[in-house]
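Entry 14. Structure prediction run on the chain below.
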Amino acid sequence: MRIFIAAVLVCLTIAAEAQELSLAASTWSPYVDQRLYERGVAVAVATTALERAGYDPSLTIGSWPEVMVDTQDGTHDVLVGVWFTEERSTELAFSEPFLDNEIKFLKRADSDIRFRSVEDLAGLRIGVVSDYAYNREAVDTTGIEITAAGSVRENVESLLAGELDLVLADARVAMYEINQLVVARRVTLLPEAVITRGLRIAVSRTRPDHEGIVEAFNAAIAAMRSDGSYSQLLASFRISL
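Output returned:
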């Protein structure tokens, strides 16, 4: 009997170890940031869902695109906070979106610029962020001067300096940077979303169980939405748009 119990305990220990997941993400406040509560809202939602699905996640925050490359090659198991593209999907298995990213324009408060269609953008200087997947799709039209910077904050500073007419950014990121710079009265976020993207986790296809991880994550997010814990978790961050 003792031998049987010991064998069961060994099996349970092995199973528990098999559930460990190495997560990777790049700093993208307020979604991912080592300095923030729960290391950011995307990290909080993703790790909570994975824990509820029976996994033991550990997180490494690195730089982009290194964290994506490291997940593609299997150095990490899961990439947290990423947009789907066909190119990425060849090496990564994507979950359903667990957060929506509303991509909007930011302008100076004293500007009379309006956005109803791409024709309204003709002749304007627009700041975007390098390597974001939204750039070409969102503002691909003639007569627009596109300037790529390394961050939304750089673009906001250029906007305030009069070097840009608009900044294209995720609305939550824009609001975070505006609050950090204490310039809320000097800028305005236009209400119309240019596009909306779904924020996901992506699992390395080097893992034989990548489909199972994605399915378990999706099911956990659905359960969190149903039991109200998803809304409670988002509310704790006070970043509703």
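Residues 19 and 55 are 5 Å apart (CA to CA).
Filed with the rest of this week's runs.
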